[in-house]
Design brief:
The chain is of the alpha+beta class. Helix content is 27%, strand content 25%. The protein has ten helices and 28 strands. Strands 1, 2, 3, 4, 5, 6, 7, 8, 9, 10 and 11 form an eleven-stranded mixed sheet that branches. The chain is globular. The relative contact order is 0.10.
Length: 547
């Protein structure tokens, strides 16, 4: 007999089954077991499929539903975690995702669900026609960009089941995209009740941060390239074929499901395999930064978390630099599995190709292939914070003396006209004038780049602790929201706990309370529930008013 505990996403567990913990950073093999005994990914799939059949009622799976595997994690001790997306009568279910957790022998242990509400609808025929949903989304995009004469505005509706916002209902998820007056992209996803036409939710869908080569920000850096005849291509076969191209001011990238136009970027080539000059006068300099950032991010996830590429499949992504006109942004796009970087306006920002920005953008790709945190409300803030956290850890891991690790986001790209030294601050996020230091009930109403501040603050406290201190030559002062004193456990353990939570315990609907639960579970998995690390996670969340 199974029971459900709601933690947002909800937690489904077998009655009488205790949560499993480990005392090491990587769980040890069971006594007498060898690495050869560790289940394969294929075996994990078979075990999970059997669990779905056996526990279909508890998972609210019916004949009208289907599932698709999004991700598989097999721990060193053989414990398996298989993440699923759900459809209902062929329609994607927002909030239908769940993770099945299995013992080393394949026995079902429990499951994390984005929502615990059963999905059942009287029908899947919309009362609101698709063209009307498209018009509503187009109007929402215009309203979000007041004073702009948008060009090439396109809106593409998709019929879905929304289980994220209360009782499941039929909805239109419409991706609207256009070009602004400078020719740069703007995009918004609008969720509309397919029966009444009422707005359910809306969010921005450009996830932003906002040989050797002479880079703009990182000094002279090593690059792996590809020989082609008598020249070289800025393409790295050792990291899944990652490469960098020149957008040459074009804005031709597809955004989500909407393609404005599609023209490929031109792959950078070089005659002597020494790229760039370290100045913006040479277009290859920004390309060096972008490629180096891709390399450093790939290496971080491989070296620290054992992840083979952003999607975990060994395949590389690609970069486009010199995008748009004076474009003060950089963004990740799942449809091309790529990063795009603007050159900045020169007054407030320079080219947005710094190392922490690259790590931030590529981490959006990791999130999309794991928890897929919805990019609105509190889950959207956690999505952005995940990228800030891992972008920061990438910078520390790279150990580049020209761009040393710190808890400042985008400090290399800002210019004098920006008015401060960084895009965001992790020790006290409110230093940027907009981000939240502490959780409150209105947090989900903030832009996701500002609601992310609470998780960034938590991450800094967990790694470094509260109060004034100097780390790596940079002075920080991190107060707590409850007046407590927090002792840090270090960056490595922060990264291990957040990665474990993201890839094993979080779901698309995870909010701040759910993030506290997920990171505590992750700390318990890695270090034990009676460990100092587990206690530190709880203390750091309490210090930002979560829990």
């Amino acid at each position: 007999m199974s029971r459900i505990r709601h933690v947002r996403g909800s937690r489904l567990a077998m009655a009488g089954t205790a949560a499993t913990t480990a005392t090491l950073l990587v769980a040890a093999l069971a006594p007498g077991a060898t690495a050869a005994d560790r289940p394969t990914r294929a075996a994990a799939l078979d075990h999970a499929a059997a669990a779905l059949r056996e526990h279909a009622d508890t998972l609210d799976l019916t004949g009208a539903q289907d599932t698709a595997v999004r991700d598989i994690v097999v721990d060193e001790d053989g414990t398996q975690h298989v993440r699923y997306d759900r459809t209902y009568r062929g329609l994607p279910v927002l909030g239908g995702d769940f993770v099945v957790h299995l013992a080393p022998d394949g026995a079902f242990r429990d499951a994390d669900r984005a929502t615990g509400t059963p999905v059942s609808l009287p029908g899947v025929t919309p009362g609101l026609p698709a063209p009307e949903a498209a018009d509503l989304a187009a109007s929402a995009l215009r309203a979000a960009n007041p004073g702009e004469l948008l060009k090439r505005l396109t809106a593409k509706p998709e019929l879905v089941v929304d289980a994220l916002h209360g009782a499941p209902r039929l909805a239109w998820r419409t991706d609207a995209a256009a070009l602004d007056s400078l020719g740069n992209p703007v995009a918004r996803t609008v969720l509309t009740d397919a029966g009444t036409g009422a707005r359910i939710d809306a969010w921005d869908t450009v996830e932003s941060a906002s040989g050797d080569g002479a880079s703009l920000y990182g000094g002279t850096v090593p690059l792996e390239t590809t020989r082609s005849g008598s020249s070289y291509r800025l393409e790295d076969a050792t990291r899944g074929g990652t490469y960098t191209g020149d957008a040459a001011g074009r804005t031709d990238l597809c955004i989500l499901t909407v393609c404005l136009v599609r023209e490929p970027a031109t792959l950078f080539t070089d005659a002597d395999n020494h790229w760039g000059t370290g100045t913006a006068d040479d277009r290859a300099s920004a390309a060096v930064d972008a490629q180096y950032g891709t390399d450093a991010t790939w290496d971080y996830y491989r070296d620290v978390h054992g992840r083979d590429g952003i999607a975990g499949d060994g395949k590389g992504s690609y970069n486009r630099v010199h995008y748009g006109t004076r474009y003060n942004n950089a963004f990740w796009d799942d449809t091309c599995f790529c990063m795009t970087y603007g050159d900045g306006d020169g007054t407030t920002m320079g080219p947005l190709v710094s190392l922490d920005v690259a790590g931030h953008e590529m981490s959006h790709g990791v999130t999309s292939k794991t928890a897929a945190l919805t990019y609105s409300g509190e889950s959207g803030g956690l999505n952005e914070a995940t990228s800030d956290i891992f972008g920061t850890l990438v910078e520390w891991h790279a150990d580049n003396s020209a761009d040393p690790g710190d808890y400042l986001i985008g400090e290399k790209v800002v210019r004098g006209g920006f008015g401060r030294e960084a895009l965001r601050y992790m020790d006290r996020p409110s230093r940027d004038g907009s981000s939240a230091d502490c959780w409150d009930t209105a947090l989900g109403d903030l832009d996701v780049h500002y609601s992310s501040g609470v998780a960034n603050h938590f991450a800094y406290l967990l790694a470094e602790g509260s109060g004034a201190r100097t780390v790596g030559g940079v002075a920080y002062s991190s107060p707590t929201c409850d007046g407590s004193t927090v002792a840090g456990i270090g960056r490595d353990k922060l990264g291990a706990i957040w990665y474990r939570a993201l890839t094993v315990h979080m779901t698309s609907s995870t909010d701040y309370a759910g993030a506290r639960t997920a990171t505590l579970e992750a700390a318990g998995d890695l270090y034990g529930t009676d460990s100092a690390e587990y206690a530190a996670v709880g203390a750091a969340w309490s210090a930002v008013n979560v829990g």
